[in-house]
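Why do we care about 3D structure at all? Because function follows from shape, and shape follows, mostly, from sequence. That is the central idea of this module. The next example makes it concrete: a single protein chain, its amino acid sequence, and then its structure expressed as tokens.
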Amino acid sequence: MTTADDDARARLAELRSVTLERLAALRGEHDAVVDASRDSNADDEHDPEGATIAFERAQVDALVRDAVARLESVDEALQRIDDGTYGVCARCGRPIAAGRLEARPTATTCVSCATA
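And the structure:
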């Protein structure tokens, strides 16, 4: 394993940690919204507050799904480091620029392929 791999692994580990914290917070927020709606008599269809609760729940659900997807992409990037394919474009097979990997450590394509 190279120093670049070690640096990438450290960036990915930090991103994974931040994502796990965010996911825990979002799940707590989701539980709070669900609990609040359970304790109210809100009728989503007829009560003006019901629509707000449904919107909040849907918004938090979307953020949870996004965090889960980010976590999966981080884990896949860590696996690519282990496999020796990290930093290689999945589309064309050329190296992904270090700057792109620094900005987006889970990138699977080079800039050329990403914009094509």
